[in-house]
Amino acid sequence: MKSIILREIKTFFGSIIGYLVIAIFLIINGLLLWVFDSPFNIINTGFADLSPFFELSGYVFIFLIPAITMRSFSDEKRLGTLELLLTKPISVLQIVLGKFLGSFLLVVLAILPTIMYVFVLQTYSLPQNSLDLGSVLGSYFGMLFLIASYTSIGIFTSTLSENQIVAFIISVILCFFFYYGFEALANILGNFKQQIAAFGMENHFISMSRGVLDSRDILYFVSLTAIFLSATVYQLKKEQF
What is the rounded CA–CA span in Å between residue 83 and residue 163? Predict the structure, then answer.
């Protein structure tokens, strides 16, 4: 499984596309958070608060993570190496987990430079050192669960087509639906609003992005990730027959 993880990372950074995807992510975040007059602009809030960054990430990841995961199994299908991969002396679950962890680590690498936001606010905010580091740490922890859920969706959709663009589009649609779709349905239907919204990622992630770590939110993301990874295993086992 370790070799699959390393292979995923090496393949991603083996072309200019890998660096481009991460660069675009960091540029979009930087412009919306610090330059453009957007609802997420941290300077406009007048507070040493990173919550706009965590709220924005829920939407930016909808495009970033599918761009990273779209090649996972689509490329294997297109190149005809999926059959060879499935014959290796490791289980289908190990293959899926290897692909998943490889993509997950890539996204984590992409967000590492955002730690400088913490340094900037902690150093230059007035009064100095007014940033709640405990809340920020909890928010980053919550972000990891969101990344895991998006990544599992992206890995699953990459098994549905050998065309990377098709896999990317399906993944974006599913990620958007699970993040905002239930919230939209709740607003439209009105009745049982809280119950319907609870099925969506946004409801749980916003709570975690404020540094509130509730076991119900963690269980939600773990369950969603497990469901899509199980669906991926099932889809690949179908390929063997």
Answer: 17
